[in-house]
Write a structure and sequence with these properties.
This is Peptidoglycan-binding protein. Pfam families: PG_binding_1. It comes from Aquibacillus salsiterrae. InterPro entries: Peptidoglycan-bd-like, PGBD-like_sf, PGBDSf. There is one protein chain. With about 150 residues, the chain is mainly α. It folds into two domains: about 60 residues, PGBD-like superfamily/PGBD (Muramoyl-pentapeptide Carboxypeptidase, domain 1, Orthogonal Bundle); about 60 residues, Muramoyl-pentapeptide Carboxypeptidase, domain 1. Helix content is about 50%, strand content about 0%. The protein is built from six helices and no strands. The longest helix is centred in the C-terminal third of the chain and has 14 residues. The radius of gyration is 15 Å and the shape is globular. The mean pLDDT is about 90.
């Protein structure tokens, strides 16, 4: 409640596409009472804990609903540390994994740029045990693997 920005707006757009209307404010990028109620309706319909929070399980289910419930593709998560400026196949794997668990890096291009860093930060923000620094390392890898395993 009270969060604002692009990520909130994307969640709102996804809720609307999934059939959970936001008739008063729409996808305005502000997580207010209307958005919270829509999240709670979504959670209730799909058997999730009804807490009004958009955590990993709610994001995963929303992504699954919008993808018609497709299984995640399997691919190994890279070991090591990756941050803005890095490039290559390992970065593509990170980007694919983030997208699959509901944190879209806005492209699978193998470039760890600002969008990938933002997606990593949004993912890290869901777990108090993770440092929200936008850097993919061993701890973020472990939690990302758990999120993928939970979806499959």
């Amino acid at each position: 409640m009270g969060d604002e920005g692009t990520f909130v707006k994307e969640i709102q757009q996804d809720l609307i596409r999934a059939g959970f209307a936001l008739p008063i404010y729409g996808a305005d990028g502000v997580f207010g009472p209307e958005t919270e109620r829509a999240v709670m309706r979504f959670q209730r319909q799909y058997g999730l804990e009804v807490d009004g929070l958009v955590g990993p399980l709610t994001l995963s289910k929303l992504n699954e609903v919008l993808d018609d419930g497709g299984q995640l593709e399997t691919f190994p998560l890279p070991t090591g540390v990756y941050r803005q400026g890095d490039e290559g196949e390992a970065v593509k794997q990170i980007q694919r994994a983030l997208k699959q668990v509901g944190f879209d890096p806005q492209g699978i291009d193998g470039i760890y740029g600002p969008n990938t860093e933002a997606a990593v930060r949004q993912f890290q923000q869901q777990f108090p045990a993770l440092v929200n620094d936008g850097i993919y390392g061993p701890n973020t890898r472990r939690y990302l693997q758990m999120a993928i395993d939970d979806r499959n």
